[in-house]
């Protein structure tokens, strides 16, 4: 039999898991893994920072629905990924990171990059293990994917000492696991499904809220959620970006993205993680019956009461509920109980999204980007990045397909935009609109080099208020007198820095915009180039978003009695 090194075993195991891409940053401790992947036909996407690789993997997974792989070198290479792994956990994204480590014989001997990174990864990953035998590499890869893709998906970590990667073993001594995963797409308990159908059949004001957790358990029943909503004329609130687009074009479906849940008498919660992003469940009326469906039992009853809890896959359970409801109730022929809801086109946006003042209102910048997407680029991938910038943009853009819109998770991570551009594009090769603030732009801007190497058609629109806007706004609201007397405290950035010039470093297109009437034309000029492009838009630093107003009220010191 053939002698195989650890890198070849990793590659074989990854191919067996259906892995076609890997996001990496090279390093001496792990190079055989790269050679193995290249020879096995796995596409290697080389990033400029290890954490960038994780963020790119997250976007790839969210766009494709497939698990992703990250490979990083030892010590600081692994340590650099910490924020990305925490982000993957907050989004329940199945990402496997393979991290290098010093040779087992040199552990605790002061060797290069000898760090206890396993301890770090154990604290922020769903599952983390050190491989101790070259021959067992495929077994550990299988274990990792089993944990990453079960009913509670999330990031996992495998650490491999460099001597195990370089070592060769007889292929005959290696076990490649097969048929080791259970089918998690359960349709739930039949009696509970029947009870849920009864509640919905008799409801006067049914509503549904769908969150990211539903995305990973749709199976072959993707259409069942939209069909149930349409059958009962049941309005749907979409919590996370991952499930946006599951109901077709949001601009054309009057049942999507409403606030109807506030007045509902029966609420179906699909794959919901009731954290702050969806109001921690506080928007659900106290007298409403809650039907909670999730594959992750830890989420059942979290921050909400579950009057009826069904452990099962979102797609399969919803399909069974739909079949039962059809036997109990005829569909409504009239409008939803909420009455007619305006379509999700940009025409619905408030007046400040068309503001003509100079510098531009941040909503005007967001609104013109949304108009470009709606009129010129409905199928483009959309990356929303940043704090205050993403708040204005989040409610403006509409999805037309699943996996189209990407943003941050519960950690509120910023600066991930350029990394997500790479990952999403690798998943489907669709052009990308990357919307960001000037603060967020600075985190991983060198991934513009990666975009140029991969020839990604991307337009980056910077909503530039020359500050860390979210903190700046809150500061002025909470401490107005102090800000007036002493100025802002460490939140100012350079006034209207010419970030658009960076595009020229990679033969891209750059344009600075100070006139609000030129925002949309500039975006169109940038898109026409088909190259990495930056449109740097000057916006004011005075407009307080509703989110920041709420946050500022929460942290505002109480008046002395």
Any idea of the CATH topology of the largest domain?
A: Rossmann fold
Helix content: 25-40%
Structural class label: alpha/beta
The strand line-up of the biggest sheet is 3-2-4-5-7-6
* Mean of residue pLDDT values: 90
Q: Please name the CATH architecture of the largest domain.
A: 3-Layer(aba) Sandwich
CATH class of the largest domain: Alpha Beta
Number of domains: 3
Q: End-to-end span in angstroms? A: 83 Å
CATH homologous superfamily label of the largest domain:
Thiamin diphosphate (ThDP)-binding fold, Pyr/PP domains
Classify the beta-strand content into a percent band: 15-25%
Note the overall shape: globular
| Number of helices, counting only DSSP H or I runs of 4 residues or more | 20
Q: Work out the radius of gyration.
A: 25 Å
**What composes the largest sheet?**
6 strands, parallel
């Amino acid at each position: 039999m053939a002698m195989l090194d650890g890198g070849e075993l990793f590659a074989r195991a990854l191919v067996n898991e259906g892995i076609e891409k890997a996001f990496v940053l090279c390093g001496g401790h792990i190079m055989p893994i790269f050679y193995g992947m290249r020879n096995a036909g796995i596409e290697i996407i080389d990033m400029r920072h290890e954490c960038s690789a994780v963020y790119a993997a997250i976007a790839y997974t969210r766009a494709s629905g497939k698990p992703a792989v990250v490979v990083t070198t030892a010590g600081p290479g692994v340590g650099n990924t910490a924020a990305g792994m925490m982000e993957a956990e907050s989004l329940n994204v199945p990402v496997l990171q393979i991290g290098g480590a010093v040779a087992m014989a040199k552990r605790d001997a002061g060797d290069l990059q000898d760090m206890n990174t396993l301890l770090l990864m154990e604290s922020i990953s769903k599952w983390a293990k050190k491989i101790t035998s070259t021959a067992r590499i495929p077994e550990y890869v299988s274990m990792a994917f089993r944990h990453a893709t079960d009913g509670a998906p999330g990031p996992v970590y495998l650490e491999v000492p460099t001597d195990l990667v370089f070592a060769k073993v007889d292929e005959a001594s290696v076990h490649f696991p097969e048929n080791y995963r259970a089918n998690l797409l359960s349709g739930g308990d039949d009696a509970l499904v029947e009870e849920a159908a009864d509640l919905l059949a008799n409801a006067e004001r049914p509503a549904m809220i769908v969150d990211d957790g539903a995305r990973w358990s749709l199976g072959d029943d993707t259409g069942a959620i939209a069909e149930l909503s349409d059958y009962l004329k049941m309005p749907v609130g979409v919590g996370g970006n991952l499930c946006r687009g599951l109901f077709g074009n949001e601009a054309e479906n009057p049942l999507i993205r409403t606030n109807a849940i506030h007045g509902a008498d029966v609420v179906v919660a699909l794959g919901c993680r009731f954290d702050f992003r969806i109001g921690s469940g506080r928007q659900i009326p106290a007298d409403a019956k809650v039907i909670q469906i999730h594959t992750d039992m830890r989420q059942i009853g979290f921050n909400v009461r579950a009057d009826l809890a069904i452990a099962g896959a979102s797609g399969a359970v919803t399909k069974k509920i739909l079949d039962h409801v059809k036997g109990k109730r005829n569909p409504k022929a009239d409008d939803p109980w909420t009455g007619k809801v305006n379509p999700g086109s940009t025409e619905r946006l408030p007046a400040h999204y068309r503001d003509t003042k100079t510098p531009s209102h941040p909503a005007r910048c967001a609104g013109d980007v949304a108009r470009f997407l709606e009129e010129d680029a409905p199928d483009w991938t959309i990356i929303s990045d940043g704090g205050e910038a993403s708040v204005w943009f989040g409610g403006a853009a509409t999805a037309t397909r699943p996996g189209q819109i990407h943003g941050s998770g519960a950690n509120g991570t910023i600066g991930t935009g350029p990394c997500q551009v790479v990952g999403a594009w690798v998943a489907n090769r669709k052009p990308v609109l990357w919307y960001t603030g000037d603060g967020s732009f600075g985190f991983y801007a060198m991934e513009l080099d990666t975009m140029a190497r991969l020839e990604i058609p991307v337009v980056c629109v910077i909503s530039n208020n020359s500050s860390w806007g979210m903190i700046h706004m809150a500061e002025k609201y909470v401490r107005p007198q102090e800000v007036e007397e002493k100025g802002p405290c460490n939140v100012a950035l350079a006034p209207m820095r010419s970030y658009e010039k960076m595009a020229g470093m990679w033969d891209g297109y750059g344009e600075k915009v100070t006139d609000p009437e030129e925002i949309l034309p500039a975006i169109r000029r940038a898109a026409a180039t088909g190259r990495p492009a930056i449109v740097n838009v000057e916006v004011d630093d005075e407009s307080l978003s509703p989110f920041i107003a709420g946050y500022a009220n929460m942290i505002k010191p109480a008046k002395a009695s």
